Amino acid sequence: MERVKVKEIFRNKEEYLGKEINVAGWIRQKRDAKKIAFIELNDGSFFKPIQIIVEDEKIENFAEIVKLNISSSIVVKGLLVDAPNGKDSLEIHANKIEIMGKADDDYPIQPKKHSMEYLRTVAHLRPRTNTFMAVFRVRSLVAFAIHKFFQEQGFVYVHTPIITGSDCEGAGEMFRATTLDLEKLPTNENGKIDYTKDFFGKPVNLTVSGQLNGETFATAFGNIYTFGPTFRAENSYTPRHAAEFWMIEPEMAFADIYYKICA
């Protein structure tokens, strides 16, 4: 039986209601009594999890299921029904559960609010939190909307280099990219770092803007836009400064400012 995504279940309720379906995902929350357990399962396709009803008399490995920790992964086969607590709620009465992966007892992300400082210490797991799932869903939709807008306006998308030898804006500090041994830096006759021994044979940095590259492409394609990561080595730890961010930079040839932009 083909796996059904949680998003499809909630968006096409009538198609699956009263039918046996397969779902797979990670346990977000779990509570159990003697003969029954309730699991909130999330498969990454939808912000809202779906509840799984696990009954001892139906599930052979019930004792093993109730011992699973948060973020363990399972595959569930069961009947989709309306939950008794509301018209928009659905639940699956499990007939079979297969354990795909068990999370450790000391799994660091639990169903409670964690500070951003703490989540920074477990960066490989924080995408599983509600906060990061919400943020990156929004980012995905915004990025899609940006591309959709410019493509509909006839702009060509240009990938500009991330590693560059030019300082486009000249005002911001840049991150230096090098393969030189920092403990044994080669020097020239003037006592300065000899970048001819570096990977590119000259100093290079992470880009602060793709504007210069964009302008050259605009003289070929007319209207172009860039959308990608930008880096600023500003030594300022505030909510208004970011070492890395994504920036949109459109360039237009033969453009009338009033008509093309203001209109």
Notes on the protein architecture:
The chain has 263 residues and is α+β, with helices and mostly antiparallel strands. The chain has two domains: 6-101, Nucleic acid-binding proteins (OB fold (Dihydrolipoamide Acetyltransferase, E2P), Beta Barrel), CATH 2.40.50; 153-262, 2-Layer Sandwich (BirA Bifunctional Protein, domain 2), CATH 3.30.930. It has helices at residues 6-11, 13-16, 62-65, 116-120, 130-152, 211-221, 257-262, and strands at 20-32, 36-42, 50-55, 73-82, 90-101, 156-157, 163-164, 176-177, 204-206, 223-231, 244-252. The strands form three sheets. A five-stranded mixed beta barrel has the order 1-2-3-5-4. A three-stranded mixed β-sheet has the order 6-10-11. The longest helix is centred in the middle third of the chain and has 23 residues, at 130-152. The mean pLDDT is 92.
Number of helices: 7
CATH C-level class of the largest domain: Alpha Beta
Q: What characteristic shape results from the CA principal axes?
A: elongated
- SSE order in H/E notation? HHEEEHEEHHEEEEHEEH
Named at the architecture level, the CATH assignment of the largest domain is 2-Layer Sandwich
User: If you average the pLDDT, what whole number results?
Assistant: 92
The CATH superfamily of the largest domain appears as Bira Bifunctional Protein, Domain 2
